[in-house]
Please model this.
Amino acid sequence: MSASLTLVPTWMENAKSAVPDETRQHAKEEMLAALVEQYAPALYRVAFSVLRNAADAEDAVQETFLRVLRHRDDLDEVRDQRVWLVRIVWNIVLDRKRRAKTRPETDDVSELVRVLPATGLGADDRAAAAQHHAHILALVDQLPPKEREVLMLSAFEELSSVEIAAVLGITESSVRSRLFRARNLMAERMDRRRSRS
Amino acid sequence: MNSPTKNDPGSAAISPAEETLRLIARLPVPEALVSRVQAGLRARQMQAAEQSRWSRPWWLHRWIDSTALRAAAAAIIVAIVAGGGWQIYSHVQPAQEPEAVTVPARVGNGGGFSSAGAMRTPDTLKGPVLTKASVPDAGTDHSAAASHKTARPHKSRKTPKLAPPAPPSR
Model:
């Protein structure tokens, strides 16, 4: 008897909660759209710094937000959405880079020529600048993975060392020590390159 | 926090590597990136909705969304299982112990064996036949003998007389 009495209010509660469910879904979709508008540009730059290809970087951003869509019910539990999103896109681009073949430097040059801002430089100067930057990026690629990742993320001014530590899943002191080692290694390699040329 | 510090010997100034990386970190994003990403998300959501609509019939949607229906179905299943268990229990009754021990009927004085067409059965099958006990000696205490009779069977010194054995039959 008591079971039938409890069923009725439960059924009525379900009828009432049907509307708030739809509203909740709509709110989550709006939140997702706001996240895209706010963070898509930053995520694109993070992806491009690793993949160095505009189309691949945009795919990585799309993939990031698709994953967010799949876990949209967990959005309320995320404390720092920016760091969370950077972490997702970072893992995606590292995974793609691992699976992709080694990218020739000439691809970087052509891509950089295309994307680097003009800033009053002639075509030749732009090509030379692109080549210079491609060389630097090739040296960065030769760094050990842990130091390389910290060095690349440290270039983003919007990320503090605490946030970099959260993205990489390490401590802040590890971030600092790896950054120190990365800078030393880059300085050695640049000196070696200069001495050869 | 990411800019080089004085205490950091490896980076007294911004290194060429960091300069390049910062340049890339500040690159302009492609035009309409946000709208393309949002359009891709909307397309994926519609695709997922279509797939779920076609993969499940309408009554299944109703079923999944209705807690009352599911609760009723669960109650029916429990009732069926309980009823089936009761039926099995009611059929399988434990063997009842008899109130009294039934003794099989006596077969007969022959000890359960037939005469097998014998003309005459020896008297031995009937067992020894005891004659009356001998008369007690004089001077014996009658009361004691009487009490012995009731309490214990009288132990006479004389052996009981047995009937003479019958001749063997053919």
Summary: Chain A touches chain B through 52 residues (CB under 8 Å). The two ends of chain A are 92 Å apart (CA to CA). The CA atoms of residues 28 and 117 of chain A lie 37 Å apart.
